[in-house]
Design goal:
Elements: E1 2-8, E2 13-19, E3 25-29, H1 36-45, E4 48-53, H2 65-72, E5 75-79, E6 89-91, E7 96-99, E8 102-108, E9 117-123, E10 133-137, H3 158-173, E11 181-184, E12 202-203, H4 204-210, H5 219-227, H6 236-243, H7 251-258, E13 261-262, H8 264-272, E14 276-279, H9 283-288, E15 290-291, E16 295-296, H10 303-310, E17 317-320, H11 326-334, E18 341-345, E19 359-360, E20 363-365, H12 367-374, E21 381-384, H13 388-393, E22 394-395, E23 400-401, H14 404-410, E24 420-423, H15 428-439, E25 445-448, H16 451-457, E26 463-464
Helix pairs in contact: 3-5, 7-11
Length: 473
């Protein structure tokens, strides 16, 4: 049996290709939308990808089942409770799919979503009685379980899903042999849970011992603990869950439409008509010079997640990137179903030379310079755009905690007549925040270089613990 795990770090997403080496038949489970790596590896190994499984309708990315159907001829399998606009094989509890020495046995494991399944994987050449592994999708993670409160499926409450999750874990997964390997669809950094491990795999036995959600507790205690302190889910999650149910255009078709060079004049026309200009360069490059009213989301961070959180799905997007990185920026938007890209700025930032009328910069300030200003006669207001949990751990005294994902809707709370200094942990989110504030008309905004990390490295005073936040009068 051939078993390959693929991991997409920016989305903390794991997918799998499993094949029988004798017959050359392969299955891909929970693929990402850009499928070239599966096709390339299958060709290298002499495999035919015959099956593609979704363990559930993912909310944090658009899966590649449509692409594998169209390019590889793969047959799509979904849980039997799934409803989709494309043809698929409904997989119900106990169903078996065998190819050569590989056997999949379906476990219906609703809870994260109603249609969720897990796949028991048997290597029949080694042991046809006990499973080698279980692919748990978003039902069971390493160190956590799938959150039941995303409400990706309309008409089912978080309480109902939590009940389903409890039963799936205790009736389907925990009875498996201790040595069964556990391979989930996400790792640390995913918003589909709150305590995910960085480990690629575990065993049922270890999860029974160490996973907080699998410890002995009542059903009601379980429901309370798995719904508490979950990260706020971006708005695009519901959008992606719906796309995964639909027979939509492929990523190739979307890229062909979106990968269009645009002159600066054309970009300005689109911007004036409501298009969003997305600058994907580093915070330092963006600060030096950028197109007015553009939004900075750097490719090297949690690019797709922040694009999905900040950008509108209703207005076209124009990408500004260093030459050669436009395709990557647009493809990664396609991974989360943002196919409404009008094109990219031809020649990237080089197009802005000699156009001082439309070029802007971001004011930046060092930690020590900020410390001096805070004890002056007219101190700036420090706006901390980290999460509330980060802010509680340590923050600059007198700062206002305004999480980045709430900034656009709460910008009206900020004073127009006072200098603002925005910061995050290291500078990634604060550059995005500063660009949003500038777009919304706040002129006197500074970005703290290096964020709270630089403040702490300079041994400047900070408040630790759950101290009262700054309140605006």
């Amino acid at each position: 049996m051939y078993f390959q795990r693929y991991y997409l770090g920016c989305l903390a997403h794991a997918s799998y290709m499993i094949a029988d080496e004798a017959t050359g038949i392969a299955a891909v489970v929970d693929p990402q939308r850009d499928i070239d790596q599966y096709l390339r590896d299958a060709a290298d190994q002499g495999f035919q990808i015959k099956y593609v499984f979704l363990t559930h309708f993912h909310a944090d990315f658009v899966a590649g089942h449509i692409e594998l159907r169209d390019r590889a001829g793969a047959e799509i399998y979904l849980g039997s409770r799934a409803q989709a606009t494309y043809d698929f094989k409904p997989a119900k509890d106990g169903d078996v799919i065998e190819f050569g020495t590989v056997r999949f046995r379906v476990l219906e494991t609703p809870g994260h979503t109603p249609e969720g399944i897990s796949l028991l994987v048997y290597d029949l050449a080694t042991n046809d009685q006990q499973p080698h592994a279980v692919l748990t999708g978003d039902t069971l993670f390493i160190g956590d379980v799938g959150r039941p409160d995303l409400l990706a499926s309309i008409g089912v409450t978080a309480d109902e899903l939590a009940d389903m999750l409890y039963d799936s874990l205790h009736d389907k997964l925990l009875p498996l042999p201790d040595e069964t390997l556990v391979y989930p669809a996400h790792g640390a950094g995913s918003m589909c849970g709150k305590n995910l491990s960085t480990e690629a795999y575990s065993t049922i036995g270890d999860q029974r011992k160490y996973n907080y959600a699998l410890q002995p507790m009542t059903r009601e205690e379980f429901k309370a603990i798995v719904t508490a302190e979950q990260p706020e889910a971006p708005d695009y999650f519901a959008h992606d869950a719906v796309l995964n149910m639909q027979d939509r255009p492929s990523l190739d078709a979307s890229m062909q439409k979106s990968l269009q060079p645009l002159s600066l004049d054309r970009v300005l026309e689109l911007q004036a008509a409501g298009a969003q200009v997305l600058d994907v360069r580093s915070d330092s490059d963006f600060a030096g010079a950028h197109l007015q009213n553009s939004i900075n989301i750097h490719l090297e961070g949690k690019y797709a997640t922040w694009c999905g959180t900040i950008l509108s799905k209703d207005q076209p997007v124009v990408v500004v990137a260093d030459e050669g990185r436009e395709e990557e920026a647009i493809m990664r938007l396609g991974r989360i179903g943002f196919d409404h890209v009008a094109g990219f700025l031809e020649k990237g930032p080089l197009s802005l030379q000699d156009r001082d009328d439309v070029v802007r910069g971001t004011q930046r300030i060092t930690a020590r310079a900020l410390a001096d200003q805070l004890v002056g006669d007219e101190p700036p207001l420090v706006v901390d755009v980290r999460t509330p949990n980060e802010w509680k751990q340590s923050h600059i005294e007198g700062s206002l905690n305004l999480p980045l994902n709430q900034l656009a809707e709460r910008v009206g709370e900020l004073p127009q007549d006072r200098t603002l200094v925005v910061h995050c942990r290291s500078g990634y989110r604060s550059s995005l925040a500063a660009s949003l504030l500038a777009r919304d008309g706040l002129a006197d905004v500074y970005d703290l270089v290096g964020g709270i990390d630089a403040w702490q490295a300079s041994h400047l005073p900070q408040v630790e613990g759950d101290a009262p936040a700054c309140k605006l009068s």
